[in-house]
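Job type: complex structure
Entries:
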Amino acid sequence: MSTNAGAILETRRLDAAYGPTRVLQALDLAVPAGGIVTLLGANGAGKTTTLRAICNMMVHCAGEIHFAGRRIDGMATEDVVRLGIGHVPDGRGTFVNLTVEENLRLGAYTRRDRGVAQDFERVYSYFPRLKERFRQQAGTLSGGEQQMLAISRALMLRPKLLLLDEPSFGLAPLVVQEIFRILRAINQQEGMSMLLVEQNASIALELADQAYLLETGRIIMAGPSRVISSDESVRRAYLGY
Amino acid sequence: MQALMHQVLSGLANGGIYASIALALVMIYQATHLVNFAQGEMAMFSTYVCWLLLQAGLSYWVAFVLTLGFAFVSGVAIERVIIRPVEQAPVLTVVAVFIGLLLIINGLAGWFFSYTIKAFPSPFPSDAWYGGPYMSPHEVGMIFVTVVVLALVFAFFRFTPLGLAMRAAAQNPVSSRLVGVRVGWMLALGWGLAGLIGSVAGMMAAPIVYLDPYMMTGILLYGFAAALLGGIDNPWGAVLGGPIVGVLENVAGAYVVGTELKLTVALLIIVGVLVVRPSGLFGRVLVTRV
């Protein structure tokens, strides 16, 4: 039984390693259903690895991962996705040679229901710029548009949980604000749970309800975002004031 | 002039066969970045299966369709059983496996069916109305069959969700897994389809070159030249490269180098493209950031 009632995702003593290199050690993490959790930390702390471990991708794991009442550790990536975890990977993972529309169609690849056509309209309402470009080759989009496409592609799955790997990376501050505003809208309107990995701690703490602080593969602090962001040492190390 | 017309048109007909083989090579290349040297032998073996079915008394088109099924299933099986274990292996290992496959399939065909040359029927009767002064009915029919098959393949990739998933899996396996595409199976399906397309080339070529275990050796070279000429990462280019190579081969064979040296035309094209324009006529130039 889950120790955290109401958690949609929970890891218990999760270890992860690339070959002989251990990256995560005994990670305990929980994302409440409908909530937004952010995972903060410096480069190489293990943030991206945590998301990869959840999807069982490119990394060897030990420990337990529970999602929506099922154990998913050891499951193939494709099957984890089919359970309803949308992953917006680092680097955006754009299918650069395919059109915007084809990228979105792939997002809904596992779905056989009739709601797919509506979901095109749904993601276009969040990101109208994609609608203007839907016949365009995705590789020709700007960085911000490709990030929007990556989020939209994950939304087309109609996931219960969205994993976001540094959606602010390499983008202009205005674009970052726009994307985070839309993420908040999606969370509020659809109640979609999110696990957000960020280096941009201030904007992540603004969006998230709860935060974990990761340092060399261990959680060194966890709590509500308000508490974390007012913590003296966090402010100095991650927020820079 | 009439002789030239004849050479050009029958070159176009042969080009259909080269285009099919080239497309099969490109499909595997896009997913693995390697040329499947065994593609021709797979086609040859499928053609023998067709011959067996015809010997058993089946009508041509029934045997044709059953052979397509055999070629598809055996392509999938080869990927699952033989290629998959070496997926992560170094390039040379995979090349060695491809060459090993070539020799094994060739040997199996010789063992089962003997190395004696056999005649293979054409489904297009030699007195059919669609023959003409420049082209035999078989050549006309061959062009028709390859065009239909290639059109179906392109429609499949362009308009079906499975075709889209196969393109995605070849381009970006990591992102494909993250949208739930079973990448391993997509690669296997790619091998199946490549085998199927190759088998069409085999069955269309056999009435001309006769059926024996070495029937596809030359054709694979022409197909490879066609794929390179069109751009090995571009399916459309590969298909256009087919007729170009077919016509060049025939015209050069008739007027320049003579029939015995025809195959050197293919080799010249291969070397020429690699030296002058490695990305081919329609290929994209790959720039890798280091």
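Summary: The mean pLDDT of chain A is 92. The longest strand of chain A covers residues 7-18.
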